[in-house]
Write a structure and sequence with these properties.
Radius of gyration: 30 Å
Bound molecules: histidyl-adenosine monophosphate
Keywords: Ligase, Nucleotide-binding
Shape: elongated
Strand order of the largest sheet: 1-5-6-11-10-9-7-8
Protein name: histidine--tRNA ligase
Enzyme class: ligase
Largest sheet: 8 strands, mixed
EC number: 6.1.1.21
Family: Belongs to the class-II aminoacyl-tRNA synthetase family.
Length: 493
């Protein structure tokens, strides 16, 4: 038996799998009814046959520890580009997410969520977007191609198609979820980040984009960011579309052209021209395109495009609504904003820091034709994504990070080992009344308890002593004033 397995392993397996199974074979001194776990045989066979195969899965099982390896010294850091959230970081994260959620609710949006793991097909699109090359994708044990979501919009589109006519439009949905992109790490860009999204499904008018920007402005104001710190660059993909239609660029090519243009500040202009040339656009068109992209005022744009097109009309309406919503000073027209995702069709916008030190803070736009790319009926839609990383960098720069300590209302402590149970009863009574309680679970000197109370910012110390407890009472010390009193447990609020 052992010899036969050895032969399979040495003659038929790929070099990456061989050491794993050889290890396995050599450490086993097989008992009489020994058999190789099925998952390993499947893995070996399918790997040797070049993948594919049945429902048992072609994934190689993780390597086994050898008999001598009782423990394994692990790297205590999380994988590159990912984060742990110890309590101090979790407090900041919760603070930020609470603002995201409260603003969304203030605007009447409902919260939704989707799985972090989706089918890979959901993220495969025609044009050469960066996001596709950054996809964390793999085959699961059932031979299905899956991916960790790099953004939330495709999942939202999937859910809207799935719900079909059972939901009444417009939908106003928000989500806060983790996204994965195999990014080159820079300040504010990570391999794992959280995104706050707000999307409106079913409103074709610019009023939708105008309200979305208003919600982001509301968020900024709440956390102390002003219009002199941050602005929004706004344009419309229709600007380029109107221009390129004149030069015979088909709608099919349009998404690809936008993605090349989005790289303008990232790669040399000659490269951009070369890439645009590969799409079949004439040199004339490229020159005119690059000229339009440098336009920073709507009047100048109107001179170039003429006033009749939808692009100008949409942008004018957006600026007029910005005035009504009260955020005019936050937004500016900038034709160079096209966004790096292929699916946008109309207004696009990006939040930027005015000092120009950081990457985009947030971004969004209209994507009226995304649903049909998944086989659904198109519904007008727009939304934005707002990451959790750049904003924290900005808050640090501005010295606006909140000081968030742990907060517990009461520390309850037994003064005697035998009163541990009584202290538990006191803690339960307080928690039943909605009070937060840190119960001291071991017998500790009072000095220790006071130190802990200071560390967790406790408001009160509730001490359970023998004499008071016999009378159904406890001692309470209000830590801010030093006031101390005795109170019956039933009267303790
Ligand atoms: P996006 O521009 O790719 O758009 O991402 C939106 C925001 O997510 C960025 O502005 C940034 O704040 C954050 N972000 C993206 N990648 C990273 C990263 N690697 N590390 C840290 N933060 C990051 C979208 O994802 C669209 N789906 C947004 C949208 C929603 N459009 C319509 N609805």
């Amino acid at each position: 038996m052992r010899g036969a397995i050895h032969m399979i392993v040495t003659t038929r397996l790929s070099s990456s799998l061989r050491p794993i199974l050889l290890d396995f074979v050599s450490i086993c001194s097989p008992p009489r009814n020994f058999s190789i776990p099925r998952r390993l045989i499947c893995a070996a066979a399918t790997k040797a046959n070049g993948g594919g195969g049945g429902r048992s899965g072609s994934i190689v099982a993780p390597p086994l520890l050898t008999q001598d390896e009782d423990f394994q010294k692990i790297d205590v850091n999380p994988p590159k580009g990912t984060r742990d959230f110890p309590p101090e970081d979790m407090r900041l994260r919760n603070w930020l997410f609470n603002h995201f959620k409260e603003v969304s609710r203030l605007f009447g949006y409902e919260e939704v969520d989707f799985p972090v793991l989706e089918t890979e097909a959901l993220f495969l699109r025609k044009a050469g977007e960066e996001i596709r090359d950054q996809l964390y994708c793999f085959e699961d044990r059932g031979n299905r191609r899956v991916a960790l979501r790099p953004e939330l919009t495709p999942s939202l589109a999937r859910l809207v198609i799935q719900k079909g006519k059972s939901v009444s439009l417009p939908l106003k949905w928000f989500a806060v979820g983790q996204c994965w992109r195999y990014e080159r790490m820079t300040r504010g860009r990570r391999r794992e980040h959280y995104q706050w999204n707000m999307d409106i499904i079913g409103v074709p008018q610019v009023t939708a984009e105008a309200e979305l920007i208003s919600s982001i402005v509301t968020f900024f104001k709440r956390i102390g960011i002003t219009a002199s710190d941050v602005g929004f660059k706004v344009s419309s993909r229709k600007v380029l579309q109107e221009l390129l239609t004149k030069y015979g660029v088909t709608e099919d090519m349009f998404g690809r052209v936008c993605i090349i243009i989005d790289k303008i500040e990232k790669i040399p202009i000659d490269e951009i021209k070369k890439e645009l040339g590969f799409t079949g656009i004439s040199e004339d068109a490229i020159e005119q395109l690059l000229q339009v992209l440098s336009v920073k005022s709507l009047d100048d744009l109107e001179d170039i495009l003429g006033g009749a097109g939808e692009a100008i009309a949409d942008l004018k309406q957006l600026f007029s609504l910005a005035e009504k919503f009260g955020y005019s000073e936050w937004i500016q027209f900038d034709a160079s904003v096209v966004r790096g995702l292929a699916y946008y069709t109309g207004i696009v916008f990006e939040g930027f820091d005015r000092k120009g030190k950081l990457r985009a803070i947030c971004g969004g736009g209209r994507y009226d034709r995304l649903l049909s790319t998944y086989g659904g009926d198109d519904i007008p839609a727009c939304g934005f994504g707002f990451g959790d990383a750049v904003i924290v960098e900005l808050l640090k720069e501005k010295d606006l990070l909140p000081e968030l300590g742990q907060e517990v209302e009461n520390i309850v402590c037994a003064l005697d080992k035998d009163l541990q149970g009584a202290a538990a009863t006191v803690a339960t009574a307080l928690r039943d009344k909605g009070q937060t309680v840190d119960l001291v679970l071991e017998s500790k000197p009072l000095k220790w308890v006071f130190k802990r109370a200071a560390r967790v910012n406790a408001r009160r110390l509730v001490l359970v002593g023998k004499t008071e407890w016999e009378d159904g009472s406890v001692s309470v010390k209000v830590l801010s004033s030093g006031e101390q009193f005795q109170v019956k447990l039933s009267d303790l609020e």
